[in-house]
Input
Amino acid sequence: MKHPSFTVMSQEVEKHPDYWAELAMLCFSEDVLDAMRAQSVTRAVLTRRLGTSPGHVTPLLSGSGNLTLATMSRMAFALGLESHTSLLPIAASQTAALSQDAPSDAAGAI
Output
């Protein structure tokens, strides 16, 4: 049995919303870490500013915590920043892949 290539597996994963949610949380965590470095803010200082425990902040900064919009806003505010979300078109290659998997009727609509 032939195993799918990394490219094929990557394309399949990108069809799922969970992939994009995880990517967004990871990117946000990286942005927070970049801002902390730029401002010389330690994890301890961020934890104190958020009024929470290190055990709560560490997973958020590592990209393994479940970031809510409220948590993202509080983290940004603690660094003197604003958090914004935006909607962007999916790349054409992803749109084509999604349309192949889309339900043929309205049953799959949200």
Residues 17-39 form the longest helix (23 residues). The chain has one domain: 6-102.
